[in-house]
């Protein structure tokens, strides 16, 4: 049975239902299947041995998601080779590639949860009403343990960028 969490998040003040567990620092990072493009998939093991900053956005074509992804693309330049920055959304891989090209985003790996919603459901961010993933951040260490989690309570808000980068740097 799928776990539903209500009353924990809103979209422009309206309550939404999140599907999946609420993960915490110290939990083992769940595996996932995301699309790199229409035919090629990626999972947690594809980033084995790396520190993973996972930035989850509802859609790259919105203002806050655009700003969040651009910010982490800039931060990625100074983080080093042992860190990979992933942006997960439900946007189609075509749209992600188009957006990255137009925005000049080249240090972030975009992955799509459109097909299986396995990331959203495993990480507790799939929005039942909208079929999008809720804005959130996960920092996962090289051994696939969650070191930092930020579930935003309002989808239109920004994450705490400084705390996220601090959490990543603690793992280096």
From TrEMBL:
It is an enzyme of class 1 (oxidoreductase). CDD domains: PRX_Atyp2cys. It comes from the Bacteria. Keywords: Antioxidant, Disulfide bond, Oxidoreductase, Peroxidase, Redox-active center. PROSITE patterns: THIOREDOXIN_2, TPX. GO terms for molecular function: peroxidase activity. Its EC number is 1.11.1.24. PANTHER family: THIOL PEROXIDASE. Homodimer. This is Thiol peroxidase. It comes from Paenibacillus enshidis. The gene is tpx.
């Amino acid at each position: 049975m799928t776990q539903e969490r209500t009353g924990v998040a809103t979209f422009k003040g309206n309550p939404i239902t999140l599907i999946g567990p609420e993960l915490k620092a110290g939990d083992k990072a769940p595996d996932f299947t995301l699309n790199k493009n229409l035919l090629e998939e990626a999972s947690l093991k594809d980033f084995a041995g790396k520190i993973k900053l996972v930035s989850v956005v509802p859609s790259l074509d919105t203002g806050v998601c655009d700003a969040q992804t651009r910010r982490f693309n800039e931060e990625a330049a100074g983080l080093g080779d042992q860190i990979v920055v992933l942006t997960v959304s439900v946007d189609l891989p075509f749209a992600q590639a188009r957006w990255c090209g137009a925005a000049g985003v080249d240090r972030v790996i975009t992955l799509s949860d459109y097909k299986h919603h396995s990331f959203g459901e495993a990480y507790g961010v799939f929005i039942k009403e909208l079929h999008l993933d809720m804005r959130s951040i996960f920092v996962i260490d090289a051994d696939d343990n969650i070191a930092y989690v930020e579930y935003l309570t309002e989808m239109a808000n920004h994450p705490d960028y400084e705390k996220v980068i601090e959490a990543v740097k603690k793992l280096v």
